[in-house]
User: What shape does this take?
Amino acid sequence: MITTHIGGAFRPSAGALRLVEGRTSEPETADVSGYVRAVASHCPFLMPSVARGLTGWTVYEIAGDTGAAEAEVFHAGVQAAEWIRPLTTRPHGLLVCENIVLLGGDATAHRKLMAWPHWALKHLYGPVGLMLGKFWTGEEGTDRRGHRIPAPPFSFLAVRCAVRPVDPRFLADTPNLAQSLSTAVDDGRTVFQGLPYEWKAVKKWASSLLSPQRPVPVPKRSAAPRSS
Assistant: This one.
């Protein structure tokens, strides 16, 4: 069950995602440790984050139809982002990262399920300094040096504090968002700013933005995997 809190109101889950394992730095239901070791060389922030217990994982299983599950992935992302926001100004705040793992179904379904929630979330939270990434089972990719990045053994949505001098390069296809991220300041605002806190309304708003590019065989990563 997902219960998000924003703007003074709680939003209960519709049950489309079943909580398998609550937030932990060492989940038992997903092979995180092996994957973290495999990708550590591609991200200098990863092991320091893990060592300080600042990388969190929440594991869900898809338990409803795609439309309902898509909404719950979005709200799980909001919950993760709102958890991170007050931590970014604390010691080692740059290392904070929250990950939403999806089990059940296959990589194609996960990829589709995460697409619009990820698109909406990065536009909502980029202006306050958070970076969003999505990774699916078996995804193939390379880092900025052209080195192969190990494929994740599970699908997940990552939410982390942005590294402003570096991360805008991951947003080359969305220059306005890249600029917004590079100058982001979290002043405590409500990121929805009048937008109804319901997925149908948010998705309609998100679809009015530049549409996400169709996947290519070796996709560009939207965020360097902090915990992935």
In short: Strands lie at 3-6, 9-12, 17-24, 55-62, 97-103, 130-135, 141-142, 148-149, 155-161.
